[in-house]
Amino acid sequence: MRRISYFLPFCIFLYSLTAQAQDKLLTKEEAIAMALEYNLGIQVAKNTKKIDENNASILNSGYLPTVTANAGGSIDKQNTEGQLASGDTRTADGAETRRYNASLNVNYILFDGLNRHYNYKSFQERSQQSELEVRQTIENTILQLFTVYYEAARLTENTKNLEEALEISKDRLKRAQYQFEYGQNTGLDVLNAEVDINTDSINLLNSRQQLRNTMRDLNLVLNQDLEEQFAADTTVNFVPGLQMEDMHNTAKSNNVRLQLAEKDLNILNYNVKAAKSVFLPTVGLTGTYGWNESTNNSPLAFLIQNTSTGLTGAVNLSWNIFDGGRGITGIKNVKIGYENQALLKKQIELEVERDIRNSWDSYTNALYVLEVQEKNLQTNQDNFNRTDERYKLGQVTSIEFRQAQLNLLNAELAKSQAKYSAKLAELQMLQVSGELLNVAF
């Protein structure tokens, strides 16, 4: 038993020296900057935004003409025989005919029933929507980041509290050993102190293991080496002056889910208008500049060489008067899609209102729990200090001292949990209200 009681604290001491030498403080601002730069989900969202920006450019609008160039050539060898008006017969073996051509063609649609106009508007809405999706990804990533970051901070505080508890248990063991040597207590107090040291050592080892695992989760969010070790900042600052009514009003205008739903509604509205272009004609312009040349060395040919160049222009009109009803069916289906999106938007509005009310209640409740836990910690700290003094005087037993120590440790752990739970509740509320990226962390 004594070998175990001394071996575990020794291992913890060696690990503590190694951790202190490697870890460096990662501030919240640095963590945000690293997430914005390196997080893979944010990078994918930004690349998707670039695709939508390309789709919304004038080059993809259909407003520009199309220009094509064509060129060709052919060689034809034939054996021919022909009879003249005089009755003479002439033959040509291997008569060769060469033909060359080149042309430049320009096509431009003057009017297509406003289809391209509304498609272009739809692409622009989609581009703006992708910006909102990037913001949504960043908000989710920041919330995920701080969920892991504050968990690392909580485990850091827990580890420190467990280290202090272990030191208290070590002092208690020394005191019990001295008292046993001088005949002031039985060996049972020494054994109890050794058991408590082992328990505290195991709890400390487990806490440090959890902290290492959480650091790997943090590195995954930051897209860093998984074995990189940081020290999390345990300072928590709450946003002052938050009001329920302000959060509710802000959520109605700034919540990213509502804004995305509005963009979906706008896109479908343009799709409805674009679908109606099937009832209107299409008017286009075409122009061609061409060059042709042919040579023929046959004695029967009327022209040995022929060259022509010219410019051709045309206006064409196409009107699909009736397509069998497919256009009408398409318009009806797009309108139904628009109605469904309007219903989904109403559903999202209700969900956002519920979320902001729930998050506000969770936030205020978490702040109250934090306040209670801070008072509880102070009470247990005072109780432990008094018990420690009485224990040194021999007025309380080791069991009573251990219970006071455990009460203090549990109060410290509970207060730490309440602090970070309250901060995460605040961040979740700020995300629902759309203000997450507008506050200092």
Q: What is shown here, in short?
A:
The chain is built from 9 helices and 6 strands; from the N terminus they run αβααββααβααββαα. It is an alpha+beta fold and 441 residues long.
Question: What keywords describe this structure?
Answer:
441 residues, 4-stranded antiparallel beta sheet, Outer membrane efflux proteins (OEP), single chain, 9 helices, elongated, alpha+beta
Describe the structure.
- The structure is a single chain.
- The protein is elongated and about 150 Å long.
- Residues 1-8 and 17-21 have low confidence and may be disordered.
- Strand 2 (66-83) and strand 3 (89-111) form a beta hairpin.
- The chain has one domain (2-69, 113-280, 324-438): Outer membrane efflux proteins (OEP) (Up-down Bundle).
- Helix 4 (115-181) packs antiparallel against helix 5 (187-222) and helix 6 (244-254) packs across helix 9 (398-433).
- It has helices spanning 2-22, 28-38, 40-55, 115-181, 187-222, 244-254, 256-275, 326-392, 398-433, and strands at 24-26, 66-83, 89-111, 230-232, 282-296, 305-318.
- The protein has nine helices and six strands; from the N terminus they run αβααββααβααββαα.
- Strands 2-3-5-6 form a four-stranded antiparallel beta sheet, with no helix packed on it. A two-stranded parallel ribbon has the order 1-4.
- With 441 residues, it is of the alpha+beta class.
- The two termini are 48 Å apart.
